[in-house]
Amino acid sequence: MSQFPYENLSDDEFENLIIRICKDILGIGCKTFSLGKDGAKDSWFTGTADFFPSNSEPWSGKFNIQAKHTKVLNASCADNDFSVNRSCILNKEIERLNEVKTITPFDNYIIFTNRKLSGGSHPIIIKMLQDGIGIENVEIIGREQIDTYLTDSPQIANQFGLYKFITPLRFYEKDIREIIVDFAENSKSISSEAKSYLINFDLIDKERKNELNNLSKDYFDFIKDHSLQYFEEIENFLRDPKNEQYTRMYANTISDLQESITIERSRFNEFEHVIKHLVDCVIGDNEDKLKDYRKIVRVFIHFMYFNCDIGKTK
Prior knowledge:
It is a single chain. With 314 residues, this protein is an alpha/beta fold. The chain folds into two domains: 6-163, Trna Endonuclease, Chain: A, domain 1 (3-Layer(aba) Sandwich); 167-306, no CATH class. It has 15 helices and five strands. The protein has helices at residues 11-25, 80-84, 89-103, 121-133, 143-152, 154-159, 173-186, 196-199, 203-213, 217-227, 231-239, 244-264, 271-283, 287-290, 294-306, and strands at residues 34-35, 41-48, 60-68, 108-113, 137-141. A five-stranded mixed sheet has the order 1-2-3-4-5, sandwiched between helices. The chain is elongated and about 80 Å long. The chain starts with 10 loop residues before the first helix and ends in an 8-residue tail after the last helix.
């Protein structure tokens, strides 16, 4: 199964994603998709590719790049309407490209699609394109290879907000939800300003932690402004003997999260994306119940980070 549900993207979002990938594998000069006289969109790159198809034997010359996006779940490059029928998408594309070549010749052609591409279909489609367009350097890249690009360069997935589609980090969200609801409903008052003992933390240690976890200064400032004033109450709540059950639930949640974050950390770039992902996971399908406590959900995740319960400390 593909890691990212590209069907959730619009055509323009998918095209922008492909351009960003091409800037990595071809070069920064890769152009944005633009509408041609024929009504189709092409992207162009001229020069020697940085890393495509390999470092040792990169293609060079003028590149024509296409993005074919579908919202059909589990669509395949072997589907009749894509590569088999006489009136299929690829045959129409070949006809169009031969017209384009008369005006703007090109040496290389790459088509990206969010359809599944099997090992058996790949060489058939390559030959179909080579024969139809009349050039040797052609390639079709399916969703599996796009997944690989995004896995190798998670900052691209972050840039386009695709981390929100990633399978959630595995932990028992119910525990932390119960803790947050009970805390919010039973807290007598929420401090309006940070307590002095919390302000006087060791900035050097926190800066080092932020550096280890790639948490930006702007987001750490947001933690202090948004959440710091709650931390003493949370700590008191967890230390209260009558809340021993919640303390155990909190400890179990921390254990689950540390393991998941350690294993899956490469999926995220800045640690603030991990925090946002966790907040979204806790809210989950319980938004109606927790909507009044969304701020407290975020505060609890901030507390976990600030208290060094999640994230690297050395």
